[in-house]
Amino acid sequence: MIAAPYLLYLGNVNDEVGIKTSRGLAVFRPDECVGEFRHDGCELTLGLPRMGFAEAVAAGARTLVLGIANAGGKLGAELVADAQTAIEAGLDVASGLHHRLRDEPALVEAAARHGRQLHDVRDPRPDISVGNGKPRAGRRLLTVGTDCSVGKMYATLCLEKGMRARGMKADFRATGQTGILIAGGGVPLDAVIADFISGAIEQLSPARDADGWDLIEGQGSLFHPSFAGVSTGLLHGAQPDAILLCHDPVRPHMRGLPHYAMPGLEETLEANLRVARLTNPGVRAVGIALNTSKLSSAEAHRMCGETSDALGLPCVDPFSMGVDPIIDWINQCFEPSSRAAMPSL
């Protein structure tokens, strides 16, 4: 178990997407975050008190969370040095990067010497089986995206909160390092060997005999050349009854690929439904989730309304507008008396 409270690491990152893990914890687990650590070169903030390592320990922090993301998930020299200093100040260290803490001898030695713990969140469990595609009981919703980092985790967590507020049974199933830190468990899907991706999701969301929904956090995009393989395996393993499409309407191109344009919403829905039908022929779309954080309120509501009219599905920003229209649509879609009358999109 990763000991809370946390000190969230921003380092020298100035890319907002690059601090998404720290931001996710600050938003969804604020009571467990005592402060943020950032160098003078970092112009970003989570709105938490800025603290040094010793100061954070004095304030009750127990773990430094290296809540940043970079290309390849690497631990650089600066990050290793900061982690070592944090250990010496009395903090455990948790990381969701691909580069493991345990592979850095200086950190292993410092942790042993000071009695601290190193937590590599991106370690999949060793007993994952190859997926079999067999139908299994229960309802599942998967968030999918036009691109990486467009709000799939936020939408899934907001949907869980909204469903539970209405007395529905719903469980968030984390598939990335941020979600795992928030939920306390899950599968780091992009660290799973390709042959086992669908099996890992079958294991994460097994047969569900009770009423309610497994809400599975999506990863990547079928339209991103770097990560479409993960997205495909996730669609097959999830066997989703419902998909919720997430999109950033102001993004100019695919993340990290200026030579690839963003796909359209309708073609993205059609592609995801087509792939998902391999393991669940009855899958249907239940809504669009727009990340409108960079738009004015009036522009955000106008865009959601236009998108809903164009696609015939509810469209909201789950974080700023709530998810009630999507939940209403889900309930209507999956009432036995009304399913035949619902559109197939």
UniProtKB/TrEMBL annotation:
Domain D-glutamate N-acetyltransferase-like N-terminal: 41-124
Chain ranges of the D-glutamate N-acetyltransferase-like C-terminal domain: 130-326
Regions that span the bilayer: none
PANTHER family: DUF1611 DOMAIN-CONTAINING PROTEIN (PTHR40690:SF1), GLL3100 PROTEIN (PTHR40690)
Protein name: Putative NAD-dependent epimerase/dehydratase family protein
Species: Sphingopyxis panaciterrulae
